[in-house]
Amino acid sequence: MSKKPITMADVARLANVSKPTVSRALGGHPNVKPKTREKVLSVAREHGYAVNRNAKKLREKYTNTIAVILDFSSHRRHRITDPFIFELLAGVSEALSIRKQDLLLSPPTLSDANSYKELVSGRVVDGFIFLGQGANDAMFNELVKKDVPMVAWGGNTEGTKYCTVGSDNFLGGFLAGERFVQHNKKNILFVGNTEHIELRLRREGLEKALSTADYDYTLSELQGEDFSFNAHYEAMVQLLKSSPAPDAIFAYSDTAAMAIINALNEHGLEPIRDYLLVGYNDIAQASHFSPRLTTIRQDTFLAGALLVEKFMAVLNDNSPMSSTIPTELIVRNT
Amino acid sequence: MSKKPITMADVARLANVSKPTVSRALGGHPNVKPKTREKVLSVAREHGYAVNRNAKKLREKYTNTIAVILDFSSHRRHRITDPFIFELLAGVSEALSIRKQDLLLSPPTLSDANSYKELVSGRVVDGFIFLGQGANDAMFNELVKKDVPMVAWGGNTEGTKYCTVGSDNFLGGFLAGERFVQHNKKNILFVGNTEHIELRLRREGLEKALSTADYDYTLSELQGEDFSFNAHYEAMVQLLKSSPAPDAIFAYSDTAAMAIINALNEHGLEPIRDYLLVGYNDIAQASHFSPRLTTIRQDTFLAGALLVEKFMAVLNDNSPMSSTIPTELIVRNT
DNA sequence: TCAATTCATGTAATCTGTTTCAAAAAATCG
DNA sequence: CGATTTTTTGAAACAGATTACATGAATTGA
Predict the structure, then answer these.
(1) Per-residue model confidence (pLDDT) at position B213
(2) Whole-angstrom Cα distance, residue B152 to residue B134?
(3) Which residue of A has its CA nearest to B254?
(4) How far is B147 from chain A (nearest CA, A)?
(5) Burial, B216: exposed, middle or buried (Cβ in 10 Å; 0-12, 13-18, 19+)?
(6) Distance (Å, rounded) from C-alpha A7 to C-alpha A47?
């Protein structure tokens, strides 16, 4: 391979100064004579010197690296490809790079709290940003107890001990509910697994809106067995075989919404005329699907920025409050 | 913050052995008495010891970390959200985690070869996997000259000095062309910027198929100014205003294809009846869009595995050959 | 001009592992 | 059983930076 790279000691020798001076010159320390600094910088540049970040991190204790945990491989073939999570990832990536933090992307192969803790005590990363909460609330709480710095995208409930950033799920649900009420829809289908905190909150918001309207309605629930496109499609096909078609649907994601629309389509049902549907996330594809999706929008860049900001606060031992980002209903053709 | 974590020296003391013995016991070195190893392991486990990876990397020279470069923030709002690139990312992530390599996800803020080189000489990462070649062929070649280990997803041409893994772009183009010939289509539109090597190859394949059919055809080109959904939509709307509608379209991505179909739709044109369209990538959404997209499929898991395999070969100074993955036409409703 | 500050630089210690090499312990053998 | 070989262990060096502290140089003030 390539030969030994130049070290700080080499630069020091070549510039006729000592190691600490080089360190200070490069690190922007104020007490360095301008002439010396220039000399050092020019030698460093000339020889393409780059500080060894491992040595630096070893000495400095912190890593400036944050692990982002993303579950994109639950099943090999039917893996999640909900673009929303990637929009979120893009937001986080941008926010981290602004703060000059490195992003270590990990699949959640690690299922127990200890293996996460190890990455922190092994000085691999300073902590974790979890994109998606899944059914890990308990494990996350355990991480907090073990002093592992972390924040998660999601929602919180009484038991939640960690900081979350998320959609205003209750409001999102409420907005969908309002729309259904306005159009006098009464046979309502909620699509999503309410074991997930976020989805539970949405369902509560939805019910709140429906109940204040003071009229009779049925609210049923459909939960695809995993998060794949086909799972949702199939589940909907089954449901249409056995029950009367719903006249209003609130889906937990635009991706799920698309799958469900396909099933409704094939069953001869048309949006607006036969049913209303509200999706969630307003992913880039939502406005280009046909029909164009009515959905709940959140700003993923803001989300990323907030997640990172809160994480940094956690690192500095200020216990930041969980927060939600602005959440609005975008009405299109469903 | 949390107090000083336990070090290897601590474990050594607690187990009544020396540091090197602990190192060997944990590292699975053969020459350690089973009883000693057990003692060390139990002490380590009991105190939740984790080796400091920075110290380890400092001594060992390699980082076991690979940077994956992904361009997902070219424009703040209109950023690329082509799910294909994320499917690819998922594939790479899985392949890396199998080999116990860490994945550092970086945006390509670094535009010149030197800043990439710095990450390698600074021992941040062992090298790079670029997901997408863009118009960076020249810069990539420069990286090779600077001994920066790297591979890229893409295609290669005469000047390409680095290893690529990619779709069989020529074949992909050829398959699309064949389909057009079979249906006697003559007014063909190629959507994509042929400054990108991959797209140039596809266009060549397309032309090959068309020319062997020995009949007259027109082949025009449309290139959205950036990769956003709207750019493609708008470009297509413009084109339909000024020129006769094409009867066959070959789009460089399914995402672009969707945008274009929207434009065609609004212009009253229907797939199959009025035009054929072949997309590229077979993203998860392709088969659920309406109309269901005819497209070119590649296995992104295989792609990820190959990229990682080749990268490792590059690291070990075997110059691996570039290769293409199986590429097939999936005929659906366009 | 000399003492008192302030600024710039260097020496040595430190961070936490791995590796080399030599010594000690254990196992093998005639 | 003593000599030889093999296994197991430890002391010290090393990886490449940063930091505390000390010293020498430059500047200020009287």
Answers:
(1) 82
(2) 10
(3) A285
(4) 7
(5) exposed
(6) 10
CA pair distance A165, A168, nearest whole angstrom: 9
Q: How far is A211 from chain B (nearest CA, A)?
A: 35
Domains of chain A in sequence order: 8-51 (1.10.260.40), 65-167+300-324 (3.40.50.2300), 169-297 (3.40.50.2300)
A289, B7, B162, B299 from B205: Cα distances, Å: 30, 60, 22, 20
Contact A123/B52, CB-based, under 8 Å? yes
Q: Give the pLDDT of residue B110.
A: 61
pLDDT at B291 (0 to 100): 92
pLDDT, tens digit, 9 for 90 and up, residues A131-153: 988 778 899 999 999 999 999 99
Instruction: List bases in chain D with any atom under 7 Å of a protein Cβ.
Output: 7-20
Residue nearest to nucleotide D10 (CA to C1'): B18
Residue A12's nearest nucleotide, by CA–C1', is: C10
3-state secondary structure of B173: helix
Q: How far from B98 is each of A76, A105, B79, CA to CA, in Å?
A: 13, 14, 30
Does the beta-carbon distance from A54 to B57 stay under 8 Å? yes
Q: Mean pLDDT in chain A? A: 91
Confidence band (pLDDT; 50, 70, 90) for A78? very low
Q: Check residue B1 and give its pLDDT.
A: 44
Q: Cβ contacts of residue A63 below 8 Å, gap of 6+?
A: A57, A102, A123, A124, A125, A126, B54
Closest chain A residue to B58, measured at CA: A54
Nucleotide nearest to A9 (CA to C1'): D16
**Backbone φ and ψ of B317, nearest 5°:** 65, 10
Radius of gyration of chain A (CA): 25
CB contacts under 8 A, B 178-217 vs A, are none
Q: pLDDT confidence of A325, banded at 50, 70, 90?
A: very high
**Which pLDDT does position A75 carry in this prediction?**
44
CB contact under 8 A, A48 and B121: yes
B7 near A CB under 8 A: no
Counting as low any pLDDT under 70, the low residues of chain B are 1-3, 72-81, 109-110, 224-227
Q: pLDDT for B306-319, tens place per residue?
A: 999 999 999 998 89
What is the per-residue pLDDT across B241-269, written as a single tens digit (0 to 9) for each? Answer: 999 999 999 999 999 999 999 999 999 99
Helix segments in chain B, DSSP class H: 8-15, 19-27, 34-46, 53-60, 83-98, 113-121, 137-145, 169-182, 197-212, 229-242, 254-266, 300-315
The residue among A3 and A44 whose pLDDT is bigger is: A44
From chain A, the residues in CB contact with B122 under 8 A are 50-53
pLDDT at residue B72, rounded to an integer: 62
Picking from A103, A107, A317, the nearest residue to B1 by CB comes out as: A317
Measured between alpha carbons, how far is B291 from B274 in angstroms, rounded to an integer? Answer: 13
Contact A284 B229 (CB under 8 A): yes
Distance in angstroms (rounded) separating the CA atoms of residues B143 and B148 = 5
Distance A29 CA to C8 C1' (A): 11
Residue whose Cα is closest to the C1' of D26: A33
pLDDT (0 to 100) of residue A225: 56
Please judge whether A48 and B317 are an interchain contact, meaning their C-beta atoms are less than 8 angstroms apart: no
